[in-house]
Automatic annotation (TrEMBL):
This is Histone-lysine n-methyltransferase setmar-like protein. The lineage of its organism: Eukaryota, Metazoa, Spiralia, Lophotrochozoa, Mollusca. It holds the Pfam family Transposase_1. GO terms for molecular function: nucleic acid binding. InterPro entries: RNaseH_sf, Transposase-MT_Hybrid, Transposase_1.
Length: 143
């Protein structure tokens, strides 16, 4: 049985300039240019991330304005995650999957649990308020 984990997280598109990148030539008596600063939260995209002990299997950016509901999550499992597992972990779908995600309503919805049962993926129970299962925080370079 091979264990996999999935969750959603916000990914911020924030690229602060370094001093060297913003350096410019100016005369001694010229005023410094006014620097425009972008807020960190200005640009962000929700990503669905699925991984196992060997690394990330699927990082799926949710289109802006899309709500992650049971139908959307089910579609990602069917149309994105299964093909990604088949491609990145050949033979894994046939050997059995132990799947872990939290107790968010979208993850426990009947449409989602029925699909996972149909795949014969065993669900690992996620205990409420467990301090050793804190939310995940990811830092990725998207360049």
């Amino acid at each position: 049985m091979h264990s996999q984990r999935g969750d959603e997280t916000w990914v911020y598109y924030w690229d602060p300039e370094t001093k060297r990148q913003s350096a410019e030539w100016r005369d001694f008596d010229e005023p410094r240019p006014e620097k425009v600063r972008r807020k960190q939260g200005g640009l962000k995209v929700m990503h669905m991330i699925f991984f196992d002990m060997n690394g990330v299997i699927l990082r799926w950016p949710v289109p802006i304005g899309t709500t992650i509901n049971a139908q959307y999550y089910k579609k990602v499992l069917q149309d994105k995650l299964r093909p990604a597992i088949r491609k990145k972990r050949p033979g894994l779908l046939e050997s059995g999957i132990l799947f872990h995600h939290d107790n968010a309503p979208v993850h426990t919805a009947r449409a989602v649990t029925d699909v996972l049962a149909g795949y014969k993926w065993e669900l690992l129970e996620h205990h409420r308020y467990s301090p050793d299962l804190a939310p995940m925080i990811f830092t990725y370079s998207l360049k």
